[in-house]
Amino acid sequence: MTDSSSFPSFLFVCTGNICRSPLAELAMRREAEQRGLMVDIDSAGTGNWHEGDRPDPRARATARRHGLDGNQLRARQVRTVDFDRFDHIIALDRSHLAALKKLQPAGSKAHVSLLLDHVSGRRGDDVVDPYYGPEEGFETTWRDVEAGCKALAARFLDRPSTC
């Protein structure tokens, strides 16, 4: 059995873990796969309203249009143990960032940040929640999470190993 603690790890967090964060999880999985890397990637919500549910059907349709399958994903709530499991906990908007900073235990290993802070010229921008809007909003969300994950991968996965 392989020890996943030696792999870079990312947790993407939105409100209910059915729209933005599962799309970010899938986008980051693609980035790691394209690089041939083993990476621990997951997503979670700040709330537990959708615990155990698959991503929103519109999010899954968006993923399919981009060649990805989100059917295996299930919503869960972020837990305090996540702050020691993951190297990077990435908030999809500023409200999630604030919630994560309140939840983060002192001395935990995770670096908490806002996804679009990793994209040049997007510091402080939120990934807009598409849940209450039309299906086209999921494409806007996809573009944002894809840009964020490409930037994260370039910053944290394209470095020579120090092992």
Automatic annotation (TrEMBL):
E.C. number(s) listed in UniProt: 3.1.3.48
Keywords: Hydrolase, Protein phosphatase
Active site annotation, chain numbering: 14 (nucleophile), 20, 129 (proton donor)
Molecular-function annotations in GO: protein tyrosine phosphatase activity
Composition-biased stretches (Basic and acidic residues): 50-59
Region of interest (Disordered), residue spans: 43-68
EC top class, as a word: hydrolase
One Pfam family recorded for the sequence: LMWPc
Residues annotated as domain Phosphotyrosine protein phosphatase I: 8-155
UniProt-listed InterPro entries: LMW_PTPase (IPR050438), Ptyr_pPase (IPR023485), Ptyr_pPase_sf (IPR036196), Tyr_phospatase_low_mol_wt (IPR017867)
PANTHER family: LOW MOLECULAR WEIGHT PHOSPHOTYROSINE PROTEIN PHOSPHATASE (PTHR11717:SF7), LOW MOLECULAR WEIGHT PROTEIN TYROSINE PHOSPHATASE (PTHR11717)
UniProt record similarity statement: Belongs to the low molecular weight phosphotyrosine protein phosphatase family.
Name of the protein in question: protein-tyrosine-phosphatase
Species of the source: Parasaccharibacter apium
